[in-house]
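Case study 2.
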Amino acid sequence: MSSLTQDDHIESAVATMRREREKRPREIRREQEEQGAKRHAQTVSYDYRPQNHGYRREVPQGWLDCPRAGQCIDILIPSKVPLDDTYNDFVTPCKRYSSKQLINEQKINGREIGLVLDLTNTTRYYSAEEWTKLGIKHLKIRCKGRDSVPDNESVNRFVFEVIDFRNRQNSLKNRKYIVVHCTHGHNRTGFMIVHFLMRSQVFSVTQALNIFAERRPPGIYKPDYIQALYDFYHEVPENMVCPPTPEWKRSSDLDLNGEALPDDNNDVGNPSVPSNDHMDNKNITNDDVLGDAIPYHQQEVLRLLCYQLLEIPPQARGNLQFPGSHPVSLNSDNLQLLRQRYYYTTWKADGTRYMMLILRDGCYLVDRTFSFRRVQMRFPLKNIHDGFHDLTLIDGEMIIDKIPEVGLKRRYLAYDLMTLNGLPTVRLPFSERWKLIEEEIVKPRNFERKLFEVEGRSNPVYRYAMELFGGCDDPYVCRTHEGLLKWKYPEMNSVDFLFEVGSENRQLLFLYERGKKKLMDGTRIDFGANSKSVLL
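Prediction:
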């Protein structure tokens, strides 16, 4: 056993102290790293829960072998949904597909992404921040992927967003692209893109379906989606062919009939059955709300557009009023006009007043409150191969006709034309505007109906007529037009009243006369035999 000297003992103590001093900073750094990792994990967990509602990380059925993205269709890139990093434990590296990978793959092909339209009905697949932090706009349009096709309002919003984005890109040197995805990028994605093609370019449903199938094979493979498109555009396919279920839809993802199981991506709600927008023709009335709602921003855009087409000076937003021409009643004061001018006249229709704005992407009814709703009506140009009307504005009303052996049917009676494909016609004599309605709108539409449309629908069908006394040489006058005359038998006359309940339950009755309200004090209103009268 060796012995230690005092110097050896002192030297060993110094060495120990040195080792402790060198060791302590390393321990502190390690503790800080461990604490930081814990804090980071807690932060991720906190941010993550509300985004994914506690769902387990399950890869969507058939997603692994589903092709990533299709070829461009205009500025649209159809794609399956990218999955964030939380799915990495369930997806082998060679089959991972994240938002970063999608962006990089498109950059390699010379495409920069500017907008993502997300059609899934869940937030579990990724956070929208993955796009927005890179300056890419993300817009979610929830569409159920089970037993129902996307509703009309969702379609309207999708088409509006695409067209609005594309119009803004036209002025840029390097335009950006739009990624459209549902879960697999076929049925809902294809359904929306076909609607866009139908409303922006000259296609039949069959042509639009084939274009999508070529760019994103095998295309839409759910029969109900394909049938819904033909029904919506009133077309009858000669031979409707539905592609077979893709191979990447594994046998475990098929039902007993070999059909694809529904996509399991709904956060809330039960699958809904497609609604039938066509009312029984025995129950239709003039009070029915026609058409589909459109986005609020689109309402503002269309109001300003109408003012521009009618060459009305712009006003402050929020104060735009219905610009249609208003007739005045025929009386002893203006009866002399019938002796001084040539007039057109016809039967009194007693329908609901609507202007109709025809754009390339659709047709919009404009009511007296200056609100717009989209209706499915197509207006081809005189040469049907040149496309559809765009920036055409007509005036008229919707009525209900009783047709023998058919029943009640809606008719749109057009009695004036203000703009024809962007060219103003308001200064033309009424007789010329009348001829343009017949030659440029009625005849081409009737010709196309024979080619494509299904008869017997309760959707508005175009027909023209004249309800008012209109001066043969008169221009179109916005708002009150003293030369535009209307007349009824005395027993058919009606008066418009407005009943309001104000502050402190104060009840007010106004008489509407030429668009102005006149308060009627001391008036009693009788709401019927079972109701109490109200003294104002």
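The CA atoms of residues 396 and 414 lie 4 Å apart.
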